[in-house]
């Protein structure tokens, strides 16, 4: 059984949604399941996140600008997890390998790579990511906002009780650098 590392930049940053996709429940079925995954904040450079028209989820495309995408690095995914994630993502996305940087908490005396974000870039890690492969006309120029998704849409994805539970993303900087 292979172990996979993936970078998520949209709805799958919410642990409840990730767990529902890979385990069928918004929470790890057992503590042993929870221990299988290592989840850390990360950043993907040279890509840009977009809203998908008429959808709750985003897409990313490679970018020649200095754009970057904040998201979640998940280590310890199985072949079965990746199969289920591929079904979840659908034909609009193609999985590819990228290099991301882990974001580490900045100490009080440190200097941040971006003012006020509370994180500095750490080790570089190879990860798999789902990149948009459908028509770019289906994307908006506006960036998708994780905090807005959590506030306004997540309850429809996981149910009210799971949407309100603190599964590790509360208080963590959002993709916009603000605490969620």
Mind sketching the topology for me?
Blueprint: E1 4-8, H1 15-23, H2 31-36, E2 38-45, E3 47-51, E4 58-62, E5 68-77, H3 79-89, E6 93-105, E7 119-132, H4 146-152, H5 154-158, H6 160-164
Protein name: Putative gamma-glutamylcyclotransferase
GO molecular function: transferase activity
Domain Gamma-glutamylcyclotransferase AIG2-like: 7-145
If you had to describe this structure to a student in words, what would you say it looks like?
The protein has a five-stranded antiparallel β-sheet with strand order 1-5-2-6-7. The protein has a two-stranded antiparallel sheet with strand order 3-4. β3 and β4 form a beta hairpin. 24% of the residues lie in helices and 33% in strands. The protein contains six helices and seven strands. InterPro entries: AIG2-like, AIG2-like_dom, GGCT-like, GGCT-like_sf. Belongs to the gamma-glutamylcyclotransferase family.
